[in-house]
Amino acid sequence: MEAVIVGWGHSKFGRFDALGLEDLIHSVAREAMESAGIEGKHVDAVWLGHFNSGLVPDTFCSSMVLSADPGLRFKPANRCENACATGSAAVYAAIDAIRSGRVRVALVVGAEKMTHQSTAGVTRALAGAGYQKDEAHVSFPEVFARYAHAYAHHHGDPVEAMAHIAVKNHENALLNPLAQMHRPLELDYCLAPSEKNPMIAPPLKVTDCSLISDGAAALVIVSDDMLSDFPKAAGFRAWQQVNDYLPMAAKDPIAFAGPRRAIAQAFRQAGVTVDDISLAEVHDCFTIAELMMVEALGLTQPGKAREAVIEGQTRRGGKLPVNLSGGLKSKGHPVGATGVSMLVTAARQVLGEAGDMQLPGASLALTANMGGDAVATYVSIVEAVKN
To answer: What are phi and psi for residue 217, nearest 5 degrees?
Structure first.
């Protein structure tokens, strides 16, 4: 038995002072079940992706999903966590349960409530995903600034390409009504530090950093022997997880070894190459991360992604459109929701239900969700199996 996506829910990402974590969870869980045409009583088990790391006091929150529908009461519910790849961890746990035959209908929710914290508070919380023994004092902007410096040392200054990525992703988000940021950026504004675009961790400026967000996303995933019960379905042509060492000192930043390995394994599992992929949603927590993901995908040789990005190969209409949703940079990055959100976008695209974001003829959508500094990487390749 294989797992297929038959329904989804997705909140708008942004700042929602009047909504708590439970409100976000309930809204997308109900939307996903309605999308699939099921009720809580039909669900066999629930998985919640929620990073937390001190962002909210709710550390025992898996059963918050159950009160979204009376029929969910007493269903098994588990919380998954794997830093910024937390949502994907929840999805893959559900896939494993379905493929084992233990579960036939799974409800997966990813959610995070972040904006009630100060920027400094969020930065501290996210730093909990680093190696505390040696790196507790290092923020993630500083971590990815090190990646940018390593890239510059080996391949040349990435700053211009990073600015193009920011401009592209903000442009893409204008077509996504659920994106947090609907504001175009000018290239010159992204290139030059200014009072409104200060340096955060050189060479990373504000425009190179993903957003602090509230938001949630959900999927209904079922066994493929139930396809006749649903009007639409997207299947997993590939699903691969790779974890690398946690300490930064144990990894060569320029190698980006975890994402490269996960992507290569996904291509082998699916029997495809990068040339077969219609679009990719990749983890652009910082613009340098997207630049390095472009090379990890094999779109260019190492060190050549700068030219490809500047030439427009990753824009809509380019060789491989990347982050048509706006990505974490402009769609938003509620950490526990991100991996689920990517797969909602992928399913909508291959089923032709992406609205203004739709890429004509999309057949294979790749998602690459990364936790930490290339520590946990989940790569999925999604295709339509019924529409």
So the answer is: -150, 155
- What integer pLDDT is reported at residue 54 of this predicted model? 87
Instruction: Tell me which residues of the chain have a pLDDT lower than 50.
Output: none
* Stated pTM of the model: 0.97
Q: Tens digits of per-residue pLDDT, 192-221?
A: 999 999 999 999 999 999 999 999 999 999
SS (H, E, C) the chain: CCEEEEEEEECCCECCCCCCHHHHHHHHHHHHHHHHCCCHHHCCEEEEECCCCCCCCCCCCHHHHHHHCHHHCCCCEEEECECECHHHHHHHHHHHHHHHCCCCEEEEEEEECCCCCCHHHHHHHHHCCCCHHHHCCCCHHHHHHHHHHHHHHHHCCCHHHHHHHHHHHHHHHCCCCCCCCCCCCCHHHHHCCCCCCCEEECCEEHHHECCCCEEEEEEEEEEHHHHHHCCCEEEEEEEEEEECCCCHHHCCCCCCHHHHHHHHHHHHHHCCCHHHCCEEEECCCEHHHHHHHHHHCCCCCCCCHHHHHHHCCCCCCCCCCECCCCHHHHCCCCHHHHHHHHHHHHHHHHCCCCHHHCCCCCCEEEEEEEECCCCEEEEEEEEEEEC
Active-site residues, by number, are: 84, 333
Q: What average pLDDT does the chain have?
A: 97
